[in-house]
Amino acid sequence: MSDHLYVGTRKGLFELRRNGGWDVANVSFLGDPVCAVLPLADGGALAALDLGHFGNKLWRRDAGDGDWREVAVPVYPEKPADDDDKNSWSLELLWCLEAGAGDAVWAGTIPGGLFHSPDGGESWHLVRSLWDRPERKEMFGGGFDQPGIHSVAVDPRDSNRLLLDISCGGAWLSDDAGKSWRLGHGMTNRYMPPERRDDPVIQDAHRIVRCPAAPEVCWCQHHDTVFRSTDGGETWAEVPAVQPSTFGFAVAVHPQDPDTAWFVPAVKDECRVPVDGKVVVARTRDGGKNFDVLTDGLPQRHAYDLVLRHALDIDETGATLAFGSTSGGLWFSEDGGNSWSAPDIRLPPVACVRFAD
Asked: Which of 17, 110, 226, 352 sits CB 3.0–4.6 Å from 93 for a disulfide?
């Protein structure tokens, strides 16, 4: 059971501890936008900051040390003068951070580059095997001007096996730690012209997660609906039964039960608020055949909280969940989502939440 939660917000990184209830125990980078956070296996952490005009910054806190120190950010190579790539070759956003084997860390970025660090974020290199794929020039931004990688799902049984999604760029798989790549198939992007809706290159996956105990089972909150894969992301099947809506950004999967997953729906792309102004969590326990709409402890009247891609997390027990919203709401469940409670705090808009082991 985790007693430690990181919450990255538009105005700082908040650390909450469980002591009877949950409360803020520490605040770092107050006033600065924290766009990604990664608790490290050794007890340390990485925090990415998006400082606008001043660019992206990455900070590391070592285990047992309360002080943060700045480390290197991923750097793109110079774009060749004769390259017709319409996308930029400079870091726009550090969108996600995920742990690999040992001290390895993966970073997903806008404009769609995957970076690898062998030393816990101290140094980085661009994974050129993905960046140089010819399909990348067909990709486009989903909500941003550039495509971006916002999910990197590492197989816990074999860290060479990677599954990632690129906004309007599809789901990509590698079995050799990024030396080679192939596309997953089966998703549908309904806002595209009919002749391109099933094209795997332009699928708009919002978030992909992998079940730690059964890594071949993966869940995807797509722009249009929810998809599930039982072969590690090679093929995807639609899950249409999500209530009250199939649109959303966040998804979490139970760490031991691949048939159990949680979503936080919103109305649709053009109306990014909860359906009927009621914050709910949708949960399936049978692989997506049926869903419970969980409301106990969540605001059910004039609530317009949107939950972003990385703002829902589950601890290693599968019982404790947390999610935060763009309105600064933060809720916890200690019983798998049956009931929820909110600490007596008001936070800035929440970009990401992450339990520390």
From this structure: 110
